Amino acid sequence: MCGIIGYIGARPAGALLFKGLKRLEYRGYDSAGVATLDGGKLEIRKDAGKISELDEKLHFESMAGSMGIAHTRWATHGGVTRENAHPHADCSGAIAIVHNGIIENFQELKAELAAKGHSFKSETDSEVIAHLIEDNYKGDLEKAAFEAAKRLRGSFAVLAVSAKEPGKIVCFKRESPLLVGLGNGEMFAASDATPIVEYTRRVVFLEDGEAAALTKDSAKFYSLDDWKPLEKKASTVEWSAEDAGKNGYSHFMLKEIFEQPQALKAVIAQDEKNLAAFAEELKKAKRVIAVACGTARHSAVIGKHMLDRVAGKDIEVLIASEFEYFADRVEPGTIVLAVSQSGETADVLDGLRRSKAKGARIMSIVNVKGSSIDRLSERSLYLNCGPEIAVASTKAFMAQCAVFYLLAHAMAGKLEKAEGDLRLLSGLVQQELDAANGKMKEIGEELAKKQNAYYLGRGVNYAIALEGALKLKEISYVHAEGMPAGELKHGTLALIEKGTPVFLLNPEDYTYYESLSNGIETRARGAKLFGLSNKENKAYDEWIRLPETIDALLYPFLSIVPLQLIAYYAAVARGNDPDKPRNLAKSVTVK
Ligand code: M6R
Q: Whose CA is nearest to atom 11 of ligand 1?
């Protein structure tokens, strides 16, 4: 879960790569580095720390040359140190590489190369790639990269340059994402389109087992199996550089929370034929298993309730990293439905590949068109919500729930109702954002002083309890647990004491009275009870008012908004950067 970028053209590479790293920082941000080539001279600057802080001491912009590669790291193998930061060089200092992924057989490769006299400077798995290329280098970087790639097991997206062949970047990949950006007299390679979209929107996605060789005027594609040339089609990125900026908000997360009314409208713009075919296939499937991680899984739990209540279709929802223990036993007639913002989550991809091999049909709900999950899927529905940069997912969650809402209604032949509901909902979410922001800031600041918080809900609201708790813990580091309200008495109630914050998801729907009783039980043990409801109740210490709506299944959309804001303001009050929580990365491309 690192970000990589390469550039070859006429612009000053140091400045361009530094800017690109800032755009990719959401993929990992514990260390960073840049290598540029100026004629036959390779220069590497790198260190541990956040990219902007590093630039203050390393001055990436001042690096000479108009080609180079760069990396922002989320540590997997080896601590967060300068030595472990990328780019990594070979023994001679002529070859440099950046890598995203995990080389599973790095220990045996390292021992083999060390026995041949290679000396290693880092504890990383990635450094073996530079030495393997060096070991195979006989005057042709492409050939050497091809030979090196044959020896690698695991996941990788690699960019390699050599001072002996200035004017060329070699790229190759398996499992980790990589695309090539096609410019005029300049070429790019990157983990995703965010760092290059301001220069070009024409991109080619590399598939597993593919490679590319870039010069400033050409991009040639090859199969990693035999280095035979490949014909590849370019796609156009549909969003612009402005979409990937903060637009005056203090953080991406806040901007993305405020983009949710728009996101709801954008979801409606589905390709109707595709949606109808998707709905029909789900209806007919013998078995449907939704697989996802984190927030995306919470949206799938909501989807399960929606499909059940609106279309009478029962689906299973599994955490992707647990699905792998069942994936090899799925049978034809099963649809595995991936839900993912990035479309690159390794645990999801693993289960998809394995169940596809067993004859399952793969369908997905994704945000990033052309992502690995999208490409693996026979049919996809898109969130259409633009790039989501903050690590904490907000607008993508809203959009995922909205896609499920459309889907459930399309399956029941009531698509028009759903479209109308979502338009109405967009206005209600806007009202909430306008009215609730100040109060949620106060609650967030109060929560920042606490150690623990609990989120309770029943039925469809249980998923919001999970999501509210995840938002709080991942960015504020306040421990939070989301659970079914009915489960409380089976253990967790023991943890409630005077002043413990409890958020009760309590809209006036089919769960109202039972949830209310559970909330009252926590209050009787001293909890401070925050009731999220459209209806006031004296049992609440604080009433977080939800707008009235026309369909009970719309309440989850309305209840998550205040919880997102509370988490955001709690993080800010604790002095954390909500966009880049410690130890996490946006796109989890390793298992
Ligand atoms: O890109 P994906 O939707 O597949 O990502 C899944 C999770 O990693 C993601 O939702 C994660 O839980 C977020 N940080 C939550 O805010």
A: 294
Residue 518 near residue 504, CB atoms below 8 Å: yes
Query: Does the Cβ of 389 fall within 6 Å of ligand 1?
Result: no
Please check the confidence at residue 410 and state whether its pLDDT lies above 90.
yes
Ligand 1 binding pocket includes 588 (Cβ within 6 Å): yes
At 365, give phi and psi (nearest 5°): -120, 110
For 480-518, the pLDDT digits (tens) are 999 999 999 999 999 999 999 999 999 999 999 999 999
| Cis check: omega of the bond before 87, within 30 degrees of 0 | yes
pLDDT digits (tens, 9 = 90+) for 101-137: 999 999 999 999 999 999 999 999 999 999 999 999 9
- Report the b/e string of 307-338 with b at 16+ CB within 10 A: bebbbebebebbbbbebbeebeebeeebbbbb
Within 10 angstroms of residue 26's Cβ, the number of other Cβ atoms is 24
Q: What is the per-residue pLDDT across 371-382, written as a single tens digit (0 to 9) for each?
A: 899 999 999 999
Place of tokens 């995990």: 102
Characterize 481-508 residue by residue with b for buried, 16 or more Cβ atoms within 10 angstroms of its Cβ, and e for exposed. bbbbbbebeeeebeebeeebbbbbbbbb
Q: pTM for this one?
A: 0.81
CA dist list (Å): 49 to 25, 80, 99, 183, 468: 11, 8, 18, 31, 30
Active site residue 586: yes
- Could you tell me the sign of the dihedral formed by the alpha carbons of 410, 414, 420, 425, in that order? negative
Give yes or no for a contact between 263 and 405, defined as CB atoms under 8 angstroms apart: no
Query: Which segments within 267-416 are labelled E, that is strand?
Result: 287-292, 316-319, 334-340, 361-366, 379-382
Which atom of ligand 1 lies at the shortest distance from residue 292's CA? 4
Spatial contact of 149 and 169, defined as CB atoms under 8 Å apart = no
Cα 430 to ligand 1 centroid, rounded to whole Å: 24
- Catalytic residue status for 2: yes
Collapse the DSSP code of 187 into the 3-class scheme (helix H, G, I; strand E, B; otherwise coil) and give the result. Answer: strand
- Is the minimum distance from the CB of 296 to ligand 1 under 6 angstroms? yes
For a ligand 1 pocket test, name from 29, 74, 342, 564 the mutation site with the most ligand atoms within 8 angstroms of its C-beta.
342
Is the distance from the beta carbon of residue 352 to the nearest atom of ligand 1 less than 6 Å? no
Kindly list the structural domains of the chain, giving each domain's residue range(s) and its CATH number in brackets, ordered by start: 3-237 (3.60.20.10), 244-413 (3.40.50.10490), 435-578 (3.40.50.10490)
CA distances to 91, 108, 351, 356 from 134, in Å: 8, 17, 35, 37
- In angstroms, what is the span from residue 298 Cα to ligand 1's centroid? 10
Q: Do residues 269 and 408 lie in contact, with contact meaning Cβ atoms separated by under 8 Å?
A: no
Closest protein CA for atom 7 of ligand 1: 294
For residues 503 and 221, give the distance between their C-alpha atoms in angstroms, rounded to a whole number. Answer: 53
